[in-house]
Amino acid sequence: MFPDSNQKVAIVAIGRNEGDRLKSCLRAAMGGARTVVYVDSGSEDGSAEYAESVGCRVVQLDPAQPFSAARARNEGFACVIEHDPNVEFVQFVDGDCDLVDGWLERGVAALNERQDVAIVCGHVREIHPEASVYNRLSDLEWRQQPGETRSAGGRFMIRRAVFIAAGGFRPDVIAAEDDEFCIRVRSLGGKILLLDAPMARHDMAMMRFSEWWLRTRRTGHAYAHVAAIHGKGEERYFVRDCRKVWLWALVLPVVTLCLAPFTRGLSLAAMLILYALQFGHIYLGGRKRGWGTGDALIYAFFTVIAKFPMLEGLLEYNWRQRRGHAMTIIEYRGSKRSQ
Question: Are strands 156-159 and 89-94 parallel, antiparallel or unpaired?
Answer without folding.
Answer: antiparallel
